[in-house]
Amino acid sequence: MLKNIDGTHNDKVMHKDHLVFAVILFVVTAFVFLFICQKVLKIVEDGCFNRLREYAEVASNEFIMNNLHYGGALQFVADALGDRGDYSVDSLQPKLGEMQPFLRDQKISILLPGDTVILPDGVVTSSSKMKLSFEQEATPNPHVTVRLESDKQEEKLLYHFVPIKSHGHTVAVAYWNFSLGLIHQYLRKDKRYDRKMYVYVINRDDGRLIADTKHDSLKSVHDYKNEMDNEKGLFSALVDSVLAGASGEACFENYWEESNCFYYKPLAVNHWSIVISSPEKVAMSAIHKVRFILLCFGIVVLVFFAAYFVLLRRVAIRSIVNETERMKQDEVGKVRYMQMKLLGLLSKNFIHIYYVNPESGSYVVYPSAMNDLYKEILSRFDCNVSLYDIMNNDELTKIHKDDLELCHSVFNKDAFLEMMGPNESRKVVDMRWFINGNWVWLRHTLIGLADGKGDGYVLIGVEDVNDEKVAIEAERERLSVIKGLSEDFTLVSFINPSTREDHLYYVKKNNWADNPNWKKVGNFEDRLKLIANTLVHPDDRKMFMEMTSSEVVSEKLAAKGAYYVNYRMIINGVVEYWQLKFVMAGKAPDAQNQIVAGFISVDESTRLQLEQKEQLETQAEALKQALSAAQAANSAKKEFLNSISHEIRTPLNAVIGLTSIASAHLGDSERVKDCLVKIDQSSDRLLSIINDILDMSRIESGKFDLKEAPMHLFEVVHEVERDIRNDLQAKDLKFELDCVGINDDEVVCDKERLRQVLLKVLSNAIKFTKEGGSVSMSVKETPLTKSSYAAYEFRIKDNGIGMSEEFLKTVYEPFTRESAVSRDVRGMGLGLAITKNSVEMMGGQIEIASRLNVGTEVTMTFEFKLVQSKKNDESNDTANSGFAGKRILLVEDNILNREITMEILQDNGFIVTAVEDGDIAVKMLAKAKSRPFDVVLMDVRMPVMDGYEATKRIRAFENKDVAEIPIIAMTANAFDEDRKASFEAGMNEHIAKPVSIEKLKDVLAMFL
């Protein structure tokens, strides 16, 4: 219905809404009709299939009743003839004679072993004529089979067999049979199917198919799959369903050249199923009738709608034509009237209005408000210039650079002409103009109007919206700030202090606060109670309610602008740390201050602080322990230095004192000799102390290496015995040595380390055993399953002062000594610590058993690799005469060491040349054309040039004879890394100071 300018109504005309309504009505009617048809056809189809089900039930019941009746009779006969001793024909005849009337009436026969059959009338015959076999039918349980009549091949008989048992074994079989044709004759009497209903009985075990009495054989249903199946394989699917023992129904097309409907179900007898079949045109005749009726009804409805649409179209065309003619006559007047009305309305809101020709861009201005803003804008416009040229002159318009692209896209000819079209006739554009030194927001409303002649124009209304835009932008910034701050919070609420009513401003999604019930709570105190009772930790609940009461919050906020309450909440069974923050903000409508309350999780930061606090406490405890350890270390260090000082000063004092005594009595050779012997003993003691300290240092630094080589155990044991002989004699100790248990004398091990551990344990035994006591050592070998290895046990026992149980717990710790004897016996407490580490480095074990004032027994066990013994008849005698005339270059910076070494070497026949540093030695050898010396003894630490550098330069000589001269390091650097450095520099051997004369002679013999 159209309205004119004055608001009067035109005559009713046909709109497109009528057509749309008619189409929708037709579609809905069609869908409803199709739905009803589908339901009706489904009901009729179910009724047709129900008829097939009824006949299937009849045939099934007939089949089952016959089997149940005769099955009971057969079981009666089987029970009567059961548990007999003899089942021959003669033995059974009396009993069967008694049952003759019953057997004849029920047509029951007896099948005996040997394929003999006793018929109901008592005649004995062979079962082969009936194609029966006792072995095949003598099953433990009753069963049913279908067979062809031997005389009538077209008739099928149902056989029911029941075993006759004696003492649990099948000794005979009672059976009967009847013709299946009786069932078919019964079912075909129904005239409604015009003898078009068929019955099939199928054995699910082997697929045998019983179709009717005139069928030529007992064929399997599988034989019909290929010849009767259609393209979709529906017959095969039906056969598979029947053989699976299922019930169902189906209709097939192109089956036996026509459509057929089937219903099938399993029988209750021995894996048989029954199938009822009828032609689809007979079984579904009711559906065809209903389908024809519905089709006729649908055609009638379709014709009705077609007539309705034709009539509706003719009326619509006539009405539209008449209306179009009236509209053409009044179009011009209507447009003019609308323009005037529009101008009157726009002038109330706009500063001024532009009347623009979209083709040329010419315009006329209708002023509305003669203010400064209007005058400033009009001063930039020339009414003789196209509006398009003005709006595209950026310097003239002075529009903000961010709005220039929008201005150019709207104020152009194409855009204005597009507004004359049917799609878009109105646009609103907001832009910033630079006016009177400020950026001012102006809104431009563009309305496209077309007159009845096809021409048109565009109205542009300009409106000052600067205050609105500034307010919106300020509000947007404020909301952005609030939103940004609120996103860190889970729940933010505005509270009225006087009424305690709150307004939920922000609730984080997927959190404990995202609960519809929260919004139903209007009072903040009730909200706090709900949170306290459901979420706050029980231990913090009382504190939470007290610290969030209105009095406390008001008091805290009056003193300070913000107030915090920290507490714990239990969320999903996990304890988390939270904070409730109160802030005074803004004014409420009733001119009172508002309070903002925000719930924020501080779990991560709080736990971090707790972890940092725990770490600080742990660090403080560690520092305390470290301080205690440092103090203990300082104390141990002090004790160690005191012990070292005492142990070193004692033999050193003896050396100094005895040297003074010997110097004062040079004329008394016996006195001097005695002093020299004691000086030698003190030197050995001093060297032993230094070696122990060095060994302990190597053990602690992990640089304690073994030097394994073939050696003789007897040799080591006897060397140890010689070394302790003087100490034993000095204290008048009895010593027993037992080496009888050694079978394999030659083994691979570190000879020096083994000798060292034996000496240290024996020295302790001698040291802590009183005069007149006894010390013993036994060595025993034990074979191992591991090839080429043997175990050796060294047991050292004494009857000395022993050790207490408390001291045994720390006996292997360095610098540990028994307090009761530490003052009476000298020592540093390193012996057993070095011994234990040495034993374990060699792969052995050490055990100590001791009782105070009774004695001590130390047991050490090792596993040594055996060496295949080779007899060597060569003499090992090394004659000193071999050194006579040999030339040695001695490179030593220390004068005293140089004199001592020269004296020793010269006494053994060497010709010695001595220099004080490596630089002199290099220059001396560089001048030689041939090798001037047989060997070089090189110190390492020397001024000018050390021994390593000197060796490297000698090895670099072009004269290979001189460059390959043997060089032996003789230095106080006694660690393994020092020995390694010597070899890396090019030296041939390494000897640690102080130098043993015998050791030096052995090494020199290797190169001379």
Labels describing this entry:
alpha+beta; 6-stranded antiparallel β-sheet; single chain; 7-stranded mixed β-sheet; 1008 residues
What does this structure look like?
The protein has about 1000 residues and is of the alpha+beta class. It is about 45% helix and about 25% strand. It is built from 30 helices and 33 strands. Helix 19 (about 605-665) packs antiparallel against helix 20 (about 670-700), helix 21 runs parallel beside helix 22 (about 750-765) and helix 26 (about 920-925) packs parallel to helix 27.
Radius of gyration: 62 Å
Strand content: 15-25%
Specify the number of helices.
Answer: 30
Main β-sheet: number of strands, strand sense, barrel status? 7 strands, mixed
Distance between the termini: 136 Å
Structural class: alpha+beta
Instruction: Flag low-confidence runs.
Output: 1-14, 213-217, 870-881
Overall geometry comes to flat
User: What is the oligomer described by this structure?
Assistant: single chain
The residue-averaged pLDDT reads: 77
Residue share in helix: 40-55%
Number of strands: 33
